[in-house]
Amino acid sequence: MSFERVCALSDVKEPGALRVELDDIDIAVVRFEGQIYAVEDVCSHAEVALSEGEVEEFKGAPTIECWLHGSCFDLRTGEPTNLPATEPVSVYPVRVEGDDVFVDTEEDGALPLAASN
């Protein structure tokens, strides 16, 4: 694993998302109910920034919503929770140390749905 600092924890609103670029990858660092997540910051359906969407619970899952067409993505797995998106977005492992947020873009941080329940 190769974690890199992407932002300060205080830079990410609760709930909310912050767009960062790391290793030529756009990442949405998301804060929801005290947890920090990192997902690819591009909707798999419409190629718009997910970090501009709402962060909320959707059907029991922590999600980020694409502002253009309303697809939501599970922050734990990257899987879409509703249409029109049908393809997942990448998720990345996150580590918080003090006020620093670190993300590893070399690993897929998706939790299997069974493990995330």
Report on the structure:
The structure is a single chain. It contains 1 helix and 10 strands; from the N terminus they run ββββββββββα. The chain has 117 residues and is mainly beta. Helices cover 3% and strands 41% of the residues. The protein has one domain (4-116): Rieske Iron-sulfur Protein (3-layer Sandwich), CATH 2.102.10.10. The model has no long low-confidence stretch (mean pLDDT 92). The strands form 3 sheets. It has a 4-stranded antiparallel β-sheet, with no helix packed on it. The two termini are 25 Å apart. It comes from Blastococcus jejuensis. This is Non-heme iron oxygenase ferredoxin subunit. InterPro entries: Rieske_2Fe-2S (IPR017941), Rieske_2Fe-2S_sf (IPR036922). It holds the Pfam family Rieske. Residues 4-103 form the Rieske domain.
Q: What is the helix content?
A: under 10%
Q: What's the tally of helices?
A: 1
Name the CATH superfamily classification: Rieske [2Fe-2S] iron-sulphur domain
| N-to-C SSE string, H for helix and E for strand | EEEEEEEEEEH
What is the number of independent domains?
1
Main sheet summary: 4 strands, antiparallel
CATH architecture: 3-layer Sandwich
Relative strand content: 35-45%
> Main sheet: which strands, in order across?
2-3-4-8
Q: Could you list the spans in which at least 5 consecutive residues all have pLDDT below 50?
A: none
How is the CATH topology named? Rieske Iron-sulfur Protein
Structural class: mainly beta
